Amino acid sequence: KNNSLTADEATTQKFLFIWAITCFAIFSLMTSKLISYLLPMYAPASLLSAIWIDRALTANDQRASKPMVIGSIIILLTGLVGLVAGPVVSEKAKHSARLANDIAKEVPPPVWDWIQHSMLIATIGGIVSLIFIKRKQLEISVWAVFGTMMMFVLLATTEGLSALQASKMAPLHSLALNAGELSMAGRPLAIHIGTPRHPSVFFYLPNALFLKRELPDGVIENGILLERGEIEPIVDFVNSNHGAIVLTDTERGKKLIEQVPDMKVIDRRGRWELLGANNMTTDHIAGIKP
To answer: 10 Å Cβ neighbour count for 116?
Structure first.
């Protein structure tokens, strides 16, 4: 405990810390995630960061430089590990088709580039901060760390979000919209996606789909199936509902087609697929938007 803090200041910092950690922990445990879920954490995290920066700038002594050294080393090591891990994993992927496929599916090239750029910023920021600490210019070191954080946030909100949206969220979003429109036209819809969800596909389905009918209490009701990762309820749903369509991923889709030969891929977006019966008419397929 820093003795320079008053009792009220110490209590306030504890409150902010518990607030931030609680928000982060609760929403991290959820299987379905949206970036906006962490918004309640931003306020206490920002205040704690401001308090830390203010104390570092106004207490230019050895005691204040210790956390700066630790923080700068953590930032530097994080960046270096990321920069080294990238080429190592890429080299291993050249000799493993399965690893290459997993990387392409989970970390598409635009996302990979964003991660590498972020690691480069962290490495440079950590080095600059440590240089100024060595020169006993603590204030400049603090601003170096602050600038690194701002650069990371800027990169995340520009390159990062656009890369994630284009490569991971947009394909599922567009396919879910088409699946929802077909369901509203009378096609029974099953959602065969396991955890972790990116996020829950129900965020992507048309609102009118739920305004038109009530959500089911059981597995099969009103022509829509709640998210299920197990294949058995999906097979039962398809066999029990003529003309059913299934929104799933490529791996689960392959296994489903093996158990229900009447199913085929009628649309594919990235790693996501929309399956339908082989006897789907031209009118049914025409309802799917490109």
So the answer is: 15
Per mean pLDDT, which of 4-8, 64-68, 147-151 is the most reliable? 147-151
Kind plus residue range of the DSSP H or E element containing 16: helix 7-29
Structure-model confidence comparison of residues 286 and 240, the more confident one: 240
- Statement: residue 153 has pLDDT above 80: yes
Q: Give the pLDDT score at 290.
A: 46
* Helix pair angle (109-134, 62-93), 10° resolution: 150
Q: In residues, how long is the chain? A: 290
186-215 pLDDT, tens digit per residue, is 788 888 886 655 556 777 777 767 665 554
Q: Phi first, then psi: give them for residue 263, nearest 5 degrees.
A: -90, 150
Tokens representing 170 are 């947009």
Query: Residue 1: is its pLDDT beyond 70?
Result: no
Task: Answer for the pair 269, 174: CB distance below 8 angstroms, yes or no.
Answer: yes
| Residue at 161: amino acid letter | L
What pairs with residue 32 in β-bridges? 197
| CA 138 – CA 249 distance, rounded (Å) | 51
* H runs (alpha helix) in 135-259: 138-155, 161-164, 170-184, 207-212, 231-240, 250-259
Residue with tokens 């972020």: 118
Q: Tell me if 241 sits within 8 A of 188, measured CB to CB.
A: yes
- Check if the beta carbon of residue 149 is closer than 8 Å to that of residue 246: no
Burial string for 51-69 (b: 16+ CB within 10 Å, else e) reads ebeeebeeeeeeebbeebe
Map residue 190 onto helix, strand or coil: strand
Tokens standing for 156? 């995340």
Q: Render pLDDT for 19-59 as a digit per residue (tens, 0 to 9).
A: 989 988 887 777 656 666 778 888 898 888 888 777 766 66
The contacts of residue 43 (CB under 8 Å, 6+ apart) are 19
